[in-house]
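Researcher: Let's continue the batch. This sequence belongs to CDP-alcohol phosphatidyltransferase family protein, and it's 207 residues. Same format as the previous ones, please.
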Amino acid sequence: MLDGWMRRRIDPPLDRVGQGLARAGVSADAVTALAFALGLAASLMIVLRLDALALFLFLLNRTCDGFDGAISRGSQSTDRGGFLDVVFDFAVYGTIPLAFALREPGPFAVPAAVLLLSFYINGASFLAFAAVAAKRGLVGSIRGVKSIYFTAGFMEGTETILFFVTMILAPQWFPVLAYAFAGLTLMSALARIVLAWNVFRDDENSA
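Model: Same format as before. Here are the structure tokens for CDP-alcohol phosphatidyltransferase family protein:
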């Protein structure tokens, strides 16, 4: 819900820095790979209970994720870069609940599993919507210029970051936060399914 508001504020400074990095020869793909490595390192720190370091690495991961898109906009975006960005983001978001489950298997395993299931369902609805939207020639820029069609939801990037940061800062609250996060994520998936039901009408544009 907050991504549209946030993008209007962070995209201009990100783009200015991204253009400078692009002129300096920094590759968006290299920054994407760096972000992925930082995200995996953050998850490992969660398992090892090094929470301050985990938070630092996760915030660096999100910062690099913002810069890779800005660099792409400042140079020439590629399908490969867009693909890697989506896959690596999904991977990092999946490793964080897994890290908490490995950290405290007893109390954290079930909430982490429920959260990962909600990610799976939401990701399926997100990617399926994007695939059909691409087939029908639909475009959208509500969440900035993206490689695939983004639909708004209750849980977007900003909310995800806030939940993960809170989990790292207060790991004892992970079960409650995970269930709340999962509920909102499933609401996003349901809203996207309803949207698809109304937008992708076969009588208007046969699939």
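Researcher: Any comment?
Model: Confidence is low (pLDDT under 50) at residues 141-150.
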